[in-house]
Structures are given as C-alpha cells and as structure tokens.
Amino acid sequence: MSNESLANLLKEERRFPPPADLATHANVTAAAYEQAAADRLGFWAEQARRLSWATPPTQTLDWSNAPFAKWFADGRLNVAYNCVDRHVENGLGDRVAIHFEGEPGDTRTITYAELQREVSKTANALTELGVRAGDRVAIYLPMVPEAVIAMLACARLGAPHSVVFGGFSADALATRIEDADAQVVITADGGYRRGKPSALKPAVDEAIERVDRVRHVLVVRRTGQEVAWNDSRDVWWHDIVERQSDQHTPEAFDAEHPLFILYTSGTTGKPKGILHTTGGYLTQVSYTHHAVFDLKPETDVFWCTADVGWVTGHSYIAYGPLSNGATQVLYEGTPDTPHQGRWWEIVQKYGVTILYTAPTAIRACMKWGDDIPAKFDLSSLRVLGSVGEPINPEAWMWYRKHIGADATPIVDTWWQTETGAMMLSPLPGVTETKPGSAQMPLPGIAATVVDDDANEVPDGAGGYLVLTEPWPSMLRTIWGDDQRYLDTYWSRFEGKYFAGDGAKKDDDGDIWLLGRVDDVMLVSGHNISTTEVESALVSHPKVAEAAVVGATDPQTTQAICAFVILRGGADESEGLVEELRAHVAKHLGPIAKPKRILPVAELPKTRSGKIMRRLLRDIAENRDLGDVTTLTDSSVMDLIQAKLPSAASED
C-alpha cells in the first residue's frame, strides 16, 4: 500500500492543551522524552528500579538473538510480591486495593492486607492441588475478585496462567487448555450478565471431555446455580482456599520466567499463545500506568472497564494498578444493567478519578443519549483513557464533553496483546491532544510509519505502523511455535516489528491509527480505510455507531458497505441513506461514498465489545455465516440478514 493511498482524508483541527494544574503536578514531564532519547536502555533500567527486586539486574537488554529478547535477564523478582506484599510492608495494608461491584449490586471492599491474605491462601491451595513453578493454570472466571486473586496466586508460585475470556465457547476453551497443557482450571459456577446468572462450569466440563490432561477444576461459587460435579476432579474454592494458612513466602523468579500466555482469538486457524515474561513486562505496565494516567495512588480511584480475559485486564487491572498501590474499581456486569446509567452511577459512588474504556462502549453511551450521564455527578474524573481500537474524533469529543465536563484530558492509547503495555499515547500533563490520535510513542518506545519498502514516510503520509527497537513488555514468542512468531511479526519488514496496523503521520508528525491493514478497502484503485469511513458516518448527527466492510465488486474491486446504528430519536426516513452517502462523500470525497448503507438495531459484537466485521463481510457477500458462538447475541445476524434485500443503493 502506497503512502498516498493510505493517507487519511480526515482533517482534524481541534487541539486541547493539558489542564494547567495537572501539568504543574504531573508524574511525567517532557523531560522524560529527552532522557529516553539520550539513553533508551538507561531510561528503562531506571523504570525497572521502581520495582522491588530480590536480585537487582545488572544487564538491561540482551538482543543478541534478535528478535528473541531478554530484559533484565540476571535479575530476580516476584510479581505478586510487587503487587501486594511490598505495599503492606510499607504500611499501606489498610489502603483499599479493590472496590468490587457485582452486577446484582453486591459489593466487596478488599484492602491490600486482605488481598495479601487471600492471594497467600490461594497459592497454598494451588500448591495442595499439585501446582508447581512452571505448571500452566487455565483461568475461566467472571469479573469477580477471585479472578485477580487467582492470577496473582499463579504469579506468586511462578505458574504461568492462561486466562480465557468467560464468553468463549467450550471449543475455544479446550483449544487453549490443550495448547498450554494446563493441568488445573479455575472457574466458577457462573457469573451475572444482563440481570441473570450465566453458567461457566458446563463449558469447562465439555472442554475437559475433549482434553485428557486436566487433574483438578477449582470452582468459585458465585451464582449458586446447580452444576454437575466430579468428586475426583472438582474442588470448591471455598472448601480448599478457606482452610489454608494466610501465610505464604513468595519465591523470586528469573526476570525471563514466563508470567502468562494469552491467546489471541483469530477468526481462522489455531489461536496464537502470546507469551509474556516477568521483569520486563511488569516494568513497562507499572511505568505506563503511572505515567499515562498520572496516577496519584494516595488519592486516585482508578477504573479500567475491560475484562481480565483480555490483555487490557491483565496489564491495567491485575498488574499495572496493583504494582503502583492503586485503589481500583472492579465491575462484574454490563454498562446497561440494570439501567443505561450504571457506569456513571459507579463513577459517582466510588469517586472514580481515572476511567479507562473502549471506543465501542463510548459510542454505545452516545447512542443511549447525552441526558443519561448528565444525571450523575462525574466531577471526580480527572483523566479519561481510550483503548482497544482507533477512536473516531466525534466519539472522542463526546467523551470529553459529556463525561469529562469539557476539561478532562483524554489519553488515547495504542498497544496490543503482543506489546503487553501501552506504546503510543499522549501524556496528560504534557501533550496538546488531538481528537482521534494516539499521537506519539511513549518515552523509551521507538515507533514510526513506513512504506512498502520499509522507508519512513514523511509527515502527512501514511503506511504501516512498525516498532523499530525492542521494548521491555514485548511478547517473547508464540507459545510452542518460535517460527510462527518470526513469520507473523518479523517477516514483513526486516528488523522491524509489524503486527498489521495501518497508520498515518499528520503534518506535525503525530500518528493516527487507521485500523488493521486488512480493514483497508481497495475501491477503484484507491485504498480507503474502514476507520475513516466509519468516522465520517459517526460524525453525522443521526448516527451513533457504524461498521464498514469492503465487499467484492466486479466493477470497483471492492464496494463499501456500511451498517449503522442510529442515535436515539433518529428514524429511517426515506432519504436517510442518500443523506448519509452524501455526508461521507462531502467528508472524504466521492470515491469513499458507500455503495450500500443499512441501518440496523445492533451490530454483531463479541462479549468483549469488538465488532465482528468478518460476519458483516459474509453478509455483504451473501456467504454462509461461520461460527457465531462468541457473539453477545447471535440473533442480531438474523435481523440484519432479514433487512438486507431492500438495502442496496447504487450510484
């Protein structure tokens, strides 16, 4: 893809300087960029010293067997000690670590001292079940405190965990158990979702029938629903954990000891087990959480709305915040249960100061109406974050205005399962932010945009986002498949990491993500980003959310097909489709005008909130739908298919 063809046609002129008070007291200032540029490895060595090491490292990076990195290789530490015990030892045992809010309204408050006791008891229970350092443990839990406790207990024992999102099917779970060779599974009877219990253990039972290696299933009682039981294998959490000693001495492990395997859920082929290790990962998630959110642990209340089944929940629920001694909110349910103001009710209740969520969720809140957040006191919020996909400028502006009172800085973060921690982001006390842009690499990170021949593109041009130097929290390999690691991430551009995202630099050199390069459509010889067409559609006052795909077309190679959710109060008037097509043409040029636009009640989304564009592409090209088991609501596809025949519009 040429520089010109990936160049974004959107022109965003709005700018927002940091609030003066935040800038004055910011954790990280512009000097960090200069320090890291002068001595990148020295900079990361300094960040590693924010942690407690049993054996401090003397070597920062070993890149002699590139691209297989070793960071702080001669150092030894324990992740759980860093996230729990050291805070208690420093006199912070009474500080709240987790405010848990269950979907039904039940709550638990867990201090660092209580967290230390629970993690110790769980580590002792896992030891009783035969778990040793190096053994893999699969975790398949709802968003309850036991999920974080289980992760920390595994880290305490040096047993790599593989957390599987609770919305995944028995098939997906079995594949991950088998690939990781996990011999213990931690699950629950179920969790609460949209007002009712949602079973989890039946999927575990089904998965285990296909994988003959699991010795024990440790089951949290959350909902009280009936579950099948195997006395020789199944153990209730409350039976085994509660009778353990609350004393446990953590062992230090090598910095390169595996911490976790997290599988990326590809739509085809075998899932990739992304391997993250200990010292480098914790160094970068701890530093970025401190820097990007300007965390003041004595006074802030942090809330990341992700699920621990995704990397965001690993890095910015389980490990980043707790390593920094933060107080955080953990919420089990969905943002619209029992009402569409539930999130803002929680912000008000706990005095949340830092909120980190996804563009998909922000657009859903836009759709529900500006009046809903207006009913709640959101004045405690001082930093807002965005994660998971590029955020379109109009959603960014809505977030700032209606959630951040037109004053709160937004940090739009780019990173991936593979990178482990944030890579590109504004710093809230330094950066003049631009709606929709992740802007620049964080201090110590080397990233740029290149063309087909791996040449860095000039400002104002587009291409591929690459990372040009190793970073501490980088994936070490794909579990059990070094060659796939090389082929997937390092083969496209020699010596550079590339994981499939298109990007452009604006005239200031700031970076704008354009989404996956396989989400770039070829229309009459022009490469058009689905992200920019979606942004243009959502900038129309009647559109709350949009998903765009390219469908095979004999005339134009691909035709642009858009599926849109209308804002509350907007109706499908006779001229609406033409109005929207004209709106896109005005914003992006006639070449980007969608051939078909279909207003729909809902889009097909996984339970993590990601739009399944593959299914929309299947519909647009009249193909049979593949697996829809990971969708929140599979009936959405039937409704879309039923509307499709009348939705075509021709130029």
Automatic annotation (TrEMBL):
Residues reported in the UniProt entry to bind CoA: 193-196, 312, 524
Domain AMP-binding enzyme C-terminal: from-to ranges: 532-610
Domain Acetyl-coenzyme A synthetase N-terminal: 31-83
Residues that bind ATP: 388-390, 412-417, 501, 516
TM region(s), chain numbering: none
Keyword tags: Acetylation, ATP-binding, Ligase, Magnesium, Metal-binding, Nucleotide-binding
Record protein name field: Acetyl-coenzyme A synthetase
Catalytic activity: acetate + ATP + CoA = acetyl-CoA + AMP + diphosphate
Cofactor(s), by name: Mg(2+)
Domain (AMP-dependent synthetase/ligase) ranges: 91-471
A GO cellular component annotation in the UniProt record: cytosol
Enzyme Commission number(s): 6.2.1.1
InterPro entries in UniProt: Ac_CoA_lig, ACAS_N, AMP-bd_C, AMP-bd_C_sf, AMP-binding_CS, AMP-dep_synth/lig_dom, ANL_N_sf
